[in-house]
Amino acid sequence: MENRHGTILVTGGAGFIGSNFILHWLASEPAHVVNLDKLTYAGNPANLASVSSDRRYNFVQGDICDRGLVADLLLKTRPRAIVHFAAESHVDRSIHGPDDFVRTNVNGTFSLLEEARAYWSAINQAEKSGFRFLHVSTDEVYGSLSATEPAFSETTRYAPNSPYSASKASSDHLVRAYHHTYGMPVLTTNCSNNYGPFQFPEKLIPLVILHALSGKPIPVYGDGLNVRDWLYVNDHCEAIRTVLSSGRPGETYNIGGNNEIKNIDVVTTICSVLDELRPTDPIVPHKKLITFVKDRPGHDRRYAMNATKVETELGWRPKETFESGIRKTIQWYLNNEPWIQSVTSGSYRQWMATQYSL
Description:
The protein is of the alpha/beta class. Helix content is 44%, strand content 16%. It has 13 helices and twelve strands. Strands 3-2-1-4-5-6-10 form a seven-stranded parallel sheet, sandwiched between helices. A three-stranded mixed sheet has the order 7-9-11. Strand 1 (7-11), helix 1 and strand 2 (32-37) form a beta-alpha-beta unit. The radius of gyration is 20 Å and the shape is globular.
């Protein structure tokens, strides 16, 4: 089938945000999508089952560190853009084993940039002017805020505090350097905490939902007063699509949900919604399951994102409030028990027991 609308290459498209982005893209755009994913523990092809037969979608299993594979894939598919999600992303896992984070987030991004640069340098001028490399990053590169400090802006000094955030900060710097040194048309987005469908249940919101449904203790780190800015994943996907279309090469755009909430309030909100939707669960009210556990090392106190730049320059704003987004998220998990069963394997249960001593 001839592709008249170009192709985009998505790395890490079987993960949480990547798979939501591909679903969002194919529902909104005519362009084809090639998904390159290594399929580590959090990568799940089932996330994309609904588009597996779509002629505009193609999955390739592979590692972004495999430069030969990446080079061949770029020459074969000739994408007009690369959207780079592929990353190890869980802070707790980075504390226990930082090696994978440096390999994927730093070395992998470097390998991808090098092959993208070679590809971009060789294409014709018309294709070259339209090409974009969009790097998806995190608010955690900026470090931690006190209760009174202003939200992170695109010019906030980097101060990463975990092996995960340090590895993402390194990749951000590499992407920036490839624009300033080689002229590559790169874009970087730094987003706040995402939540929504298909999120692997090691992260706070799906973990709370699953534990509450099964009557298991709900672990909350420390005093539960750490603050995060919560962004519904579909809003994030729309922001990425907007930046890819209209963002200025070389620029960074912060993407946030305008929802600063304490962790304990996130947990109690989920419990309250489940009290309403699942009144016959093993333990109700669900907040009885809340169990405070030892805080993790170097736990950042507060993140907050100033998204004024993307809002004023590109016209993007989140559509979901936390209240509307969390209800959609909870309902999705209630409706997708087979997906939950498939991802909460023995290795997942072992990780939970080790991490939270529950």
